[in-house]
Amino acid sequence: MTDAKSQLTAHLARVAIRNLLGHPRRTLLTSGAIALGLASLIFLWGFNEGLHRNMLGNFQNAIIGTLQIHRQGFFQQPDLALTIDNPQQISEALERQGITRYSQRLDTFGLAASDHTTQGVMLIGMDPLNEPKVTELESRIGIGRFLQPDESYALILGATTANNLQVRLGDEVIMIGYDRYGAMIAESFTLVGIITSGEMGLDSGMAITSLATLQEMVDLQGQVTTFVIKVDEQRLPGLVTSLNDELTGQQLEIMPWYSMFPVMKEWVTLHNGFLYLFLGIVLFIVLAGELNTLLLSMLDRTREFGILMAIGTSRRQIAFLIVVEAVTIGIIGILLGTLLGSLIILLTGTIGIDLSTLLGSTSRFYVDPLIYPQLKLDHLGITASAILLASILSGIYPAWRASLLQPVEAIRNG
Amino acid sequence: MSEANQSTIIQTRDLHKCYWVGTMPYPALHGIDLQIRSGEFAVLAGRSGSGKSTLLNIIGGLESADRGQAEVLGEDILKMGNSQRSKFRLTNIGFIFQAYNLIRVLSARENVAYVCQLQGKSKQQSLEIANHWLHEVEIGHLGYRRPDQLSGGQQQRVAVARALATEPKIILADEPTANLDSTTGRHLIELMQRLNQTLETTFLISSHDPDVKQAASRLIKLSDGQIVDSWDEIPQPPRSLEATCPLRNRPFTERLRHLFTPRRKARQQNRQRTSRHS
Ligand SMILES: Nc1ncnc2c1ncn2[C@@H]1O[C@H](COP(=O)(O)OP(=O)(O)O)[C@@H](O)[C@H]1O
Ligand SMILES: [Mg+2]
Question: Do A19 and B90 touch (CB under 8 A)?
């Protein structure tokens, strides 16, 4: 651009901005409406993010972890014949990836029996030392305690199961199962803890003892069926790829949470879908609102545009004036809205939003009633660009209309 | 002003203009042959509706004509494209309208500076030029006021300053005193006259204000879209309506309507005829 040309552009932009300043009420109302829309978008998106994080976190932390490794086919059909051949190799691979939060398990089925009745359960042997690094099962035990190292034949049951069996802490529970050869075995356990999470999947059908105990019971000393790993969500896809590379040919399945429980992923996707729909609606409202303001303000400036054209302003320059107005309104709205939205999130993100009165029975979907909305830079970027785009679009139509004005008609009718 | 250095600056030949309201043609100008020489203070007089504004707007390149030529500074303004015309207006013509001429949100000096900045001058320089011209029109002290803080006469002075700020050869003023009381109007005319003499800018002013006519170096009488020598003269009726209002110049939408209407009517009539027979 030549010097004169850039000066001219700056001049027209200044006139456009003077127009906005000259009508402060109109400008503030439009920008304010945009800001409110944007702030609510940012907040909702952040809340949604917090909700998902909370839900997924709870879901993973309860028992399944972020990632599990088993022998090929074990997840579909848990079978003691499908133990991991070389657990040492997996541990080393994980250590090489810098993963320290992992634990080994032995998973099988069993029948829990008390004096009164029996119930089928998932029988899990956990490493009492490493398990707390991966899951927060310990915190879900409302009655009694978690397993202790070097403790044999101690048992943890879900509250529902314990109720059905009518057993209390310290009572004896007989676990009946099959060993690695398919022979039926029965051992006596002492109940040391009861899981009272309120989550259906945890409170019923779960029996947990120490890894060593279960290995001894089913005669699989030193063998495991499952690695449970905890990593940050962002690391997950990369980790899956590199573990697949490192452990190739071992006949292992490396399953992130969403491969094991695709419903959870679908739920998140569905939720996001609704959110994007809402984003679209808000954008549309912003667009319509700004378009309306610009068209109205044009209507009462028709004569002025005619005069501007008569004294030598070109059609393109008139169009430029209007687009600059639209974009400036948009930018003011974006600045105010981003500020407001971020403030709301930072505030609610530190103290949390308590949904316990609203949720109640939803807790079985692993939602903690305290939600911490998350402020994410990419949300701010995306919403700001969307609003900017919407305001450019809302300027284009009035600009086009104005550029079609006949100066004489405009002066006569305006 | 001596006759010798007066060259032609505006020349129209056989200028025709017609307005269409629906399918009805309204002839506004027929056969205007007008010559304005450089430095004139010419006044277009005529009753309301006689075609003054139309003629000024055509000369200023704000409106098209149906027939004829309008040469301004030797160039046929009717043959120019939109952007060429607006550039031409910016450099060569200053416009003053009846009222509400100014940009509401800009101060007086910013209004004047606006056109200089459109020409690509810097803000600083433009504001200096604006100050100069505001002093010329004797309201140098009001430069920081916005239009709504100025009286009608003061606003018209700002408009004059703005029209002059690009140092155009021609000023076109459409009834500049119509919204002013007679004293204020007289002062404005005196000012324009003085500027005409000192700057040698050509003024073409439309008005039916007697004071303006009085000040004219030449009075052009317009009656029913024609130039007459005296008000007693009854203008010649147009040779034919088609000469002033050629159908081909009818707006496209009207032509479409014209095309479709008879056929629809014909169809309707056909239907009526067949239903009567059955
Ligand atoms: N946009 C228009 N549509 C229809 N008729 C018009 C239009 N503009 C002007 N006219 C008609 O053209 C004639 C001349 O109008 P104008 O040039 O405004 O006259 P003046 O300025 O002398 O009052 C009048 O009869 C007027 O009614
Ligand atoms: Mg008029």
Answer: no
CATH of the domain at B239: 3.40.50.300
Buried b (16+ CB within 10 A) or exposed e, B173-208: bbbbbbbbeeebbbbbbebbbebbeeeebbbbbbbb
Q: Is the pLDDT of residue A101 over 90?
A: yes
User: Distance between CA atoms of A64 and B193, rounded to whole angstroms?
Assistant: 94
Our CA-based measurement puts residue A34 at a distance from the nearest CA of chain B, in whole angstroms, of: 24
pLDDT score of A268 more than 90: no
Instruction: Locate all alpha helices (DSSP H) within A23-70, ordered by sequence.
Output: 24-59
User: What is the predicted pLDDT for the residue at B277?
Assistant: 46
Residue in this structure with the two tokens 């779960």, named with its chain if needed: A206
Report whether residue B53 contacts ligand 1, using a CB cutoff of 6 Å: yes
Q: Under an 8 A CB cutoff, do A310 and B95 touch?
A: yes
ipTM over 0.90: no
In degrees to the nearest 10, what's the CA dihedral of A53, A54, A55, A61?
A: 100
Ligand 1 contacts CB of residue B26 (under 6 A): yes
| Structure tokens, A376 | 């994410």
| Ligand 1 pocket residue status of B205, Cβ below 6 Å | no
What does the buried/exposed string (b/e) look like for A198-211 if buried means 16 or more CB atoms within 10 Å of the residue's CB? ebebbbbbbbbbbb
Q: Check: CB of residue B138 under 8 Å from CB of residue B157.
A: yes
CATH of A105-226, one of 1.10.730, 2.60.40, 2.40.360, 2.40.40: 2.40.40
In this structure, what token pair is assigned to residue A170?
């310290």
Residue type, B129: I
Residue B112 is inside which H or E element, if any? helix B108-118
Record the pTM: 0.78
**A to B CB pairs, distance under 8 Å:** 77
CA distance B211 to B214: 5
Q: B91 and A312: CB-CB below 8 Å?
A: yes
B84 domain residue, yes or no? yes
Q: How far is the CA of B49 from the centre of ligand 2 (A)?
A: 7
- Tell me if B198 sits within 8 A of B133, measured CB to CB: no
